[in-house]
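ok trying again, last paste got cut off:
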Amino acid sequence: MQGFEIRDGALAVENVPLATIAEQVGTPAYVYSAGAIRTRYRALAAALDPLGIAIHYAVKANSNQAIITLLRGLGAGADVVSGGELARALAAGIPADRIVFAGVGKTRDEMAAALDAGIHLFNIESEPELETLAEVARSKGTTARVGLRVNPNVDAKTHAKITTGKAENKFGVPIERAPAFFARAGELSGVEAVGLSVHIGSQILDLEPYRQTYVRVREMALTLRAQGYGLRNLDLGGGLGIGYRGEEGPDPQGLAAIIKEQLGDLDFELAVEPGRWLVGAAGVLLARVILVKQGETKRHVVVDAAMNDLIRPTLYEGFHRIEPVVGRDRADAGMADIVGPICESGDYLAKDRPLPAVAAGELLVVRDAGAYGAVMSSTYNARPLAPEVLVDGDRWTVIRPRQSVDALIALDKVPDWLAG
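nice, full thing came through this time. structure:
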C-alpha cells in the first residue's frame, strides 16, 4: 500500500509509526498519507494530461478540507453532489469554474447557491430537474450551463449498491432520449445545454465497461452535433476501483487508452471524476482490541472501531485487509470475526477472516479506508466521530479532532416545557 510500510517491525505511514499516532490521538482514528495521494494524482494526470482531460475530484469519497486542499494544490477541480460539498470545495480554494454539480435531487436552494458561485456546469439527471433549474436561473437573471447525464445501460460489474449505469438505476436519462432532452432545453430560457455526462458506477476493476460506455457516448455526441446542438463538453465519470484484497487495480494508462481510442479524434472538452482511486488506498483506520471472545464456533475479536466508524463492510460487504500494526512471529489462531461494540449483529469490520493471535490492547490497522470511511461515519450509539490525521513525510497533524461526548450532546436542544 503506497505510503505505508513496515519499519522496525511495525507499520508506519511515511516516516511516522502508526503506533505513535495512536498513542497521541487515541483510537479509533483515520490516518492518511499525503504522499500516497500525490503519487496517485500524478499518475492519473500523467495518463490524462496528454489528452487534455480535466480531473474533477469526486468530493464524496473524502470531503475533509485538508484532503480537498491537497488535491486542489495538485490541480484538481471538484465534482460535488450537494450544497454542502459545493461549500467545502469553494472553502478549500477550488475555483468555481472548475466545479461540476451532479446528483439526482438538487434543491432550488442548492441550485441558487451554485449559480451565485458561478460553477462550471450542472449535470442534469431528469427533465423535471432541467425545468426547475431553468426557473431558478431565470429568477436570478442568468443562464445555467448544463450537461445531460445519460444512462447507457452498461453493467459495470460492481456491487449492486454502487452500480449506476444500468437501466433500472435511478441515475440519468436513457441515452436514447438525449435528443428530446436537448430539444426541450433549447426551448427553455435560463439554461444552455452544452454537454453529455456519464457515470456507470464505483469500484470498477474491469475497464471493458468503460469502452462499451464511451462507444455509446461517442455515437450520441456525434448525433447531437449533427442535429445542430452546440455540444462541447463530455464528462466521462469516475469509478476506477482499487485492490482491496491486495490485487492490482486498474491502470490509468489503460483508461486513457480507451478514451483516446473512442474519443481522442473528437473536438470536445473532456473531464473525469475520480474519487476512490485517488484517496482510498491512502488511508487506514486504526483500532485497538478491547477483548477476544472465544465462542463455541467462532473467535470474536472485539475492537473499539465499529460500523458507525466504517460502514462499508455491513452496508455493501466491503472488504478491508486487517492486521496487527506490530508485525512479529505469531501463532496462527485461525479464523475470526473482527467486530465492534455496537448493539447490532451487523456491527463488524470483517467476518471469517484469517487473523493471528491478538490480545486486548493491541493495535490493528484496517487498510484502504481513505475513501467512503470517515465521510460516511455516524454517531450511532452516541459514539463521537473519530479523528482524522494527515501525515506528510515527518510531519503529521490532526485534520479533524475527535468529537467529544459533550459536543455531541450539545447539538441537541431540550424544549423549555421539558426542561423542568
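cool. The chain is about 30% helix and 25% strand. The chain has two domains: 4-31+281-410, 34-279.
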